[in-house]
What does this fold into?
Amino acid sequence: MTEYNYILIGAGSAGCVVANRLTEDGKTTVLLLEAGNPPTLPEHQVPLDWTKLWGTGVDWAYFTEEEPYINNRKIYCPRGKALGGTSSINAMIYIRGSRHDYDRWQELGNPGWSYQDVLPYFKKSENQPHGASEFHGADGLLSVTDPLAPEVTSYRFIEAAVTLGYELNPDFNGVQQEGAGLYQLTIKNGKRHSTAAAFLVPILDRPNLTVTTGALVTRLLFEGTRTIGVEYLHEGTIHQTFVNQEVILSAGAFDSPKLLMLSGIGNAEQLRSLGIPVLIDLPGVGQNLQDHLAVGVAHQATQDLQPAPTSNIAEAGLFLHTEGRLDTSPDLQFHSGPVLWTHPAYTREGPGFAATACLTNPQSRGHLTLRSASPHDPVVIQMNYLQSQSDLQKLVTGIKITRQLLHSTAFDDFRGEEVAPGADVTSDEALEAYVRETCDTIWHPVGTCKMGTDSDSVVDPELRVYGVEGLRVVDASIMPTITTGNTNAPTIMIGEKAADLIKATRRVSKQASLTSA
It folds into this structure.
């Protein structure tokens, strides 16, 4: 019977990092199980083509339930189903978040997760062309670059922001996050640089690493409350594989809580209602769901706009505080792009440009529940977008600011008709209706296995699942609160830090064994 030191479930933004770091010594054995397969579509390589990956075989293509606060719309939630996870299908934006995000995590009862604690892990991953500095690394495995050939309207967006009094910010991941500038991207030599490309593909020949793709994990295995292995479906056959150290769950904000619940860890009443034997009554599993919601303003363009193949479409951005406070994270983020990105009801032919306002710190909270006891059924996703009135009001404010930006003189020689929401949509009531009709996710679900020390927490500050031994969650689901900006970079950081936490636990365990001997 094959037994591994660690079994890692999910080769996504965090999982690939953990697999790399745990096998560095050449001795620690790791089995990495991924439900998807290696990404082979040509669109994987071309940054401009990332939206063409939606709905393909590399996308789980999840949907929410009807969302009661946004006209009962079901919202599409693409998630990567391939080596690299969602880093293989995302928009490649590298944003760490605000230093206040991580200081807040520590204040919520998570020592070791302050900004100063996590900054070294961001730097550890990073390989960027400007050289090492206080905020950046140059020797890491992940390529982080500036846009190679930004479209002219991206520069005009930055010019508009500066004209309106916002600061020019050449580095959103540096001294401060506030201001306008170009986004840094996970691109290498003009091609997408997913965590699979950065952390996994270069080490596939390590003899202590086994990677099995097309493997759907169906449940975790326990002896009492000790995690001893996993059960998974591969090529039509059920397999069981065992560990002598830990199982590490890195399946993402939807599927990590799903696997916990399928394995008897979650809200006891809900589990019993589905006939699942309860191992640990942990009601926080699947709760605390947070996501970034955005709404756009779009214009037809009076000139043709041609984003380069290396463009991720959303090239320029802005972070700001609507309430003038600088001692908290920015509450709005803007993305600008040279395409007519808008709700289908507002689509027009011809060139266009758009900007979206994104709510960075939503107050609304959603939840996940099992649809059935079958591992083949997706979870029930209820985001509760705009449940909080303050979220709605912030997005209305965001539309007003977006209009100010796009009506700046910087866009005078490009600006055609405003097609969304339309020049006649001006009152707060009309703007609120537009938000409810058109707002959409920018694909950042987090928080469903919350890290903390209160009764709603699922993992402790070392990411160990409460109530059981030998089981950790390492992905975006552990975030107690969502970070300010795109969540891929923070998820990679979580993988880096978790690898050190896991290694430290093993060292302590070995030392204890030697001492007792």
Notes: Residues 488-516 form the longest helix (29 residues). The longest strand covers residues 237-249. DSSP finds ten helices and 24 strands in the chain. The mean pLDDT is 96.
